[in-house]
Design a protein that fits this description.
Chain A is α/β, with parallel strands linked by helices. Chain A is built from 19 helices and 14 strands. Chain B is of the alpha/beta class. Chain B is 62% helix and 14% strand. Classes of the chains: A alpha/beta, B alpha/beta.
Chain lengths: 430, 189
C-alpha cells in the first residue's frame, strides 16, 4: 500500500470535493452511455466477422473470476486448478468474495472480469432493482440443482417436516415465522417464495423474510430462533451435521434441473472482450465436463473444501455431490437429480426461458413494478451466440431451442411462451 | 444527537470503531456478526447513518433492507483496509454515500459523515428526478402516438389532431395523457 492508512482526505476527495458534482456526474454518465451505445451498434456483426477471419486471440489473458464459497463454485475453481484455462490461452484467477453485493459492485466497476453469481442477481442489476442499473451478460449456466430449504429442529418438534405440514403449522399457530435467503433478487429467495406459495403460504404476509450470508445461516438458526433458510450446499448438509436443522425440500424437488448459478459479467465487458469471453466459456465448460465425470467428484470435493475456496470439511460437500442424501429426519435416498455441472451440455446452455423465469418471479413479488419486455431482456443478457460458438468448438451438444419446458412443484408448466400471462397468473403474489 | 450503527463481522474492529464514534459524541448502536440482529437493529435504532466494512458479508443483509423499503432509507458509509481507487469507484456506483479508509483519524470523521448525509440526500433526489423524467418521456411518447393514430383515422392534420385532443382533455377535465391512452385503446392501430 502506498498511502498511509489515515490519509482520509485524499481517498474521499474524488467523491466529496468535486466543484460541481452533478455536472461531473452527468458528464461521466453520458460518456459511458455513448460508448456502450456505439459498441452496441457495431459489435455483433464485426465480432463474428473478426472471428470468422481467424483473429480469435483473447483480448486479455488474465481473467479474474469471482466466487462465493459454495459447492457450485467448483467449475470456476477447477478450470483454474486443473489448468483448463491454459488450453484456451487465458489464466483464470479465482477471487473469493465476501458478499453478493460485493460481487455485483466489482462486476460493475470492472474489478472482476466475471463471476460465479446467482442467476436472479444478474437480471436484477439489468433491471435496476434496488440498486445500480447496468447492462449485464450471462455467458453460461454453471449448475443445475443442489440447493435446499432447511427447517429448524424446533419446527420439526412441532410436526413441520415438509411444505404441507409447515403450512398447517403456520395457519394453526400464527406468529412471526422467519425465513432467510441469500440475496433479494437471487435464486434462493425465488425458490423459498415459490415453495411457500405452492403450499398456500404468502411469504410476505405470513412470514418474515431476511437476507443472511450463506456461511452465517447455521449460526443464525442456532442462536436467533430462525425457522428456516434456503441456501446452496454445503450449508444444508452442515445444518444436519451440526444438529440445528434438517432438509425439508431440495431445490431439485421444487424444479427438476432448475438453473442456479451462472457465469456473469457486464454487457460492456463482453463487447470489449468477446474472444476472452469465449475462451472463458470453453475453459469452464471443460471443467464442468470433468466434474460431471462421477469418478472425479471426490477429488473435486477435496480441492474445493480447502481454506482458500469453500473452507469446510470434505464430508459435508462430498455426500450430496454424489447424490447421497440424508434429510436429517430419517429419510435417506440416492437423488438422481443431484447437483449437475454439465449433463451433456444441457446444464450450460443459457436458455432464454430460464432467464425470463427470474423476471416473471421478480414481477410476481413486486420487485418489478410492471412487466418488462421479457424476451428482449433475456436475449440481451444471455449470450447464446458466444456460448454456441464455444460449445461447437468443444463438440458440446447445443439444444435446438432456446426455450425449455419444465413442470414445477405446484404442477404449473413454464415453457417461456407467454411470460406476461405466466407472471400474472399466480394466486399468491405481492 | 446522530445515531450511528456499526455493522461489522470483525468484533475487534467493531469495538474500536464504536469507541471512536462514542468519543466523538455519536450515539452508537453496534451490531456484530449476526445478520438477524442487524435487520432487527435497523428497525429498532433507526440510525441516521450505517457504517459497514466493504469486505463484510453483512452487506447483503443491508441490501435487502434497502430493497424492502424501496429506496435505501439511510446513508451507508463503507470502510475498508484496502484503499484502492477501484473500491471507491465501486462504492460510489453502488449508491454508497461516502467511503472511509481504515485507521480512522477522529478529527476527519465528523466532516465525512456530514458529507455522507448530504450526498445521500442528493442521490435520493437524483433518483427521484430520473424517475420523473422517465415518466414525462413516456407520456410524451403516448401523446405523440395517439396524435398519429388520430391523424390516420380522421384524416386530420397534425395541428388539428393535437387540438382535438387538447379540447377533449379540457372539456372532460382529464389529463392529456389520459386522453391519449383512451385513443390508443379504442382506435385500432
Amino acid at each position: 500500500m502506498s498511502k498511509q492508512p489515515n490519509d482520509v482526505t485524499s481517498d474521499v476527495s474524488p467523491i466529496i470535493s468535486a466543484d460541481n458534482p452533478r455536472r461531473d456526474f452527468l458528464k461521466k454518465t453520458t460518456g459511458i452511455l455513448g460508448g456502450a451505445a456505439l459498441m452496441n451498434l457495431v459489435a455483433p456483426g464485426v465480432r463474428s466477422a473478426a472471428w470468422a477471419a481467424g483473429s480469435d486471440a483473447p483480448e486479455k489473458t488474465e481473467v479474474k473470476v469471482g466466487f462465493i464459497p459454495l459447492t457450485d463454485c467448483a467449475s470456476v475453481v477447477i478450470a483454474s486448478v486443473m489448468g483448463f484455462d491454459k488450453k484456451y490461452g487465458i489464466k483464470i484467477t479465482p477471487s473469493k468474495e465476501a458478499s453478493w453485493a460485493g460481487v455485483r459492485d466489482k462486476l460493475i466497476n470492472g474489478e472482476l472480469d466475471a463471476s460465479h453469481v446467482l442467476y436472479g442477481l444478474i437480471y436484477g442489476v439489468q433491471m435496476g432493482i434496488g440498486g445500480p442499473k447496468k447492462d449485464m451478460a450471462n455467458l453460461m449456466t454453471i449448475n443445475n440443482n443442489g440447493q435446499a430449504i432447511s427447517l429448524s429442529n424446533q419446527l420439526k418438534a412441532k410436526g413441520a417436516v415438509d411444505g404441507a405440514s409447515l403450512a398447517r403449522l403456520i395457519k394453526a399457530e400464527p406468529r412471526e415465522y422467519t425465513f432467510a435467503q441469500t440475496f433479494p433478487t437471487g435464486t434462493h429467495a425465488m425458490w423459498l417464495y415459490y415453495w411457500l406459495a405452492a403450499y398456500g403460504v404468502d411469504p410476505f404476509k405470513e412470514t418474515k423474510v431476511i437476507t443472511v450470508p450463506p456461511p452465517q445461516m447455521i449460526a443464525n438458526m442456532r442462536v436467533d430462533n430462525m425457522d428456516g433458510f434456503c441456501v446452496g450446499e454445503p450449508w444444508n448438509a452442515r445444518a444436519i451435521l451440526d444438529n440445528v436443522g434438517f432438509t425439508a425440500v431440495t431445490s431439485q424437488a421444487i424444479w427438476k434441473d432448475h438453473p442456479e448459478k451462472i457465469l456473469g459479467t457486464t454487457a460492456e465487458w463482453v463487447q470489449k472482450n468477446p474472444n476472452t469471453a469465449r475462451a472463458l466459456i470453453m475453459a469452464v465448460l471443460d471443467a464442468s465436463r470433468y466434474i460431471d465425470t462421477m469418478s472425479n467428484r471426490t477429488a473435486v470435493s477435496k480441492i474445493i473444501a480447502a481454506k482458500s475456496y469453500v473452507n469446510t470439511d470434505v464430508a459435508s460437500i462430498d455426500g450430496r455431490m454424489h447424490g447421497v442424501y440424508d434429510n436429517g429426519n430419517g429419510r435417506k435416498w440416492t437423488d438422481a437429480n443431484y447437483m449437475k455441472f454439465y449433463n451433456n451440455g444441457l446444464v450450460n446452455y443459457p436458455y432464454l426461458s430460464d432467464g425470463m423465469w427470474f423476471m416473471t418471479q421478480h414481477k410476481r413479488w413486486g420487485l418489478l413494478k410492471s412487466d418488462p419486455d421479457y424476451l428482449a431482456e433475456a436475449k440481451k443478457i444471455n449470450q447464446i451466440q458466444l456460448y454456441t460458438e464455444a460449445a461447437t468448438q468443444l463438440k458440446v451438444p447445443v439444444p435446438k431451442s432456446p426455450m425449455r419446458s419444465s413442470k414445477l412443484i405446484d404442477g404449473v408448466v413454464w415453457d417461456g411462451k407467454d411470460p406476461v400471462k405466466y407472471a400474472n397468473s399466480f394466486k399468491i403474489h405481492a | 444527537m446522530l445515531t450511528v450503527m456499526i455493522a461489522d463481522h470483525d468484533a475487534a474492529r467493531a469495538a474500536q470503531l464504536e469507541q471512536t464514534f462514542t468519543e466523538l459524541g455519536y450515539a452508537v448502536a453496534s451490531v456484530v456478526d449476526s445478520a438477524f440482529a442487524l435487520a432487527a437493529a435497523v428497525t429498532t435504532h433507526a440510525p441516521d447513518i450505517i457504517i459497514v466494512g466493504t469486505d463484510s458479508p453483512d452487506r447483503d443483509t443491508l441490501e435487502h433492507l434497502c430493497l424492502a423499503t424501496r429506496d435505501c432509507p439511510r446513508p451507508v458509509v463503507m470502510f475498508t483496509q484496502d484503499d484502492a481507487s477501484e473500491s471507491i469507484r465501486a462504492a460510489l456506483k453502488a449508491g454508497v454515500s461516502a467511503y472511509v479508509v481504515d485507521g480512522l483519524d477522529a478529527e476527519r470523521i465528523r466532516p465525512i459523515l456530514e458529507v455522507a448525509r448530504i450526498r445521500f440526500e442528493e442521490h435520493q433526489l437524483l433518483l427521484l428526478n430520473a424517475a420523473e423524467n422517465l415518466r414525462k418521456a413516456e407520456e410524451r411518447r403516448l401523446i405523440d402516438q395517439a396524435k398519429q393514430r388520430l391523424m390516420a383515422h380522421q384524416g386530420l392534420s397534425e395541428d388539428a389532431a393535437y387540438h382535438a385532443m387538447r379540447r377533449t382533455a379540457m372539456s372532460d377535465n382529464r389529463r392529456l395523457v389520459e386522453v391519449a391512452e383512451a385513443i390508443l385503446k379504442h382506435l385500432p392501430a
